[in-house]
């Protein structure tokens, strides 16, 4: 059964990227990985608690302190976000999405060639 995710805000996603990278840490550890200017401790703590409510983060209690860890993998969220993008903006057409990125020059010819080789390899591996 596929997990249901709630949408992440930009700030929540930034915090999740750090938690995925460090795998576990306290609020101060998350803040240390954020770019300058550093957000306030209470801001990061609040966002992490929201992420926990949404099911993205879990914690281990150490006295009054909490160590936070990802409750879902980055891969799981990447699959969700990609599917949402594909279904919401490209009518579930990989070709349409690929064409969009090529037209926007987000994919150069070398990358396009590598993607096509990967597709061919996937076809032959079946």
From TrEMBL:
<protein>
    <submittedName>
        <fullName>BlaI/MecI/CopY family transcriptional regulator</fullName>
    </submittedName>
</protein>
<dbReference type="InterPro" id="IPR005650">
    <property type="entry name" value="BlaI_family"/>
</dbReference>
<dbReference type="Pfam" id="PF03965">
    <property type="entry name" value="Penicillinase_R"/>
</dbReference>
<comment type="similarity">
    <text>Belongs to the BlaI transcriptional regulatory family.</text>
</comment>
<dbReference type="InterPro" id="IPR036388">
    <property type="entry name" value="WH-like_DNA-bd_sf"/>
</dbReference>
<keyword id="KW-0805">Transcription regulation</keyword>
<keyword id="KW-0804">Transcription</keyword>
<keyword id="KW-0238">DNA-binding</keyword>
<dbReference type="GO" id="GO:0003677">
    <property type="term" value="F:DNA binding"/>
</dbReference>
<dbReference type="InterPro" id="IPR036390">
    <property type="entry name" value="WH_DNA-bd_sf"/>
</dbReference>
<dbReference type="GO" id="GO:0045892">
    <property type="term" value="P:negative regulation of DNA-templated transcription"/>
</dbReference>
């Amino acid at each position: 059964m596929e997990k249901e995710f709630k949408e992440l805000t930009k700030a929540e996603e930034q915090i999740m990227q750090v938690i995925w990278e460090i795998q576990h840490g306290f609020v101060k550890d998350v803040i240390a990985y954020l770019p300058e200017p550093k957000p306030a401790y209470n801001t990061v703590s609040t966002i992490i608690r929201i992420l926990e409510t949404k099911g993205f983060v879990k914690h281990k209690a150490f006295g009054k302190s909490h160590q936070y860890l990802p409750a879902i993998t980055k891969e799981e969220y990447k699959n969700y976000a990609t599917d949402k993008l594909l279904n919401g903006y490209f009518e579930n057409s990989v070709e349409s999405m690929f064409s969009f990125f090529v037209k926007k020059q987000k994919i150069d010819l070398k990358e396009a060639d590598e993607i096509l080789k990967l597709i061919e390899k996937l076809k032959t591996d079946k």
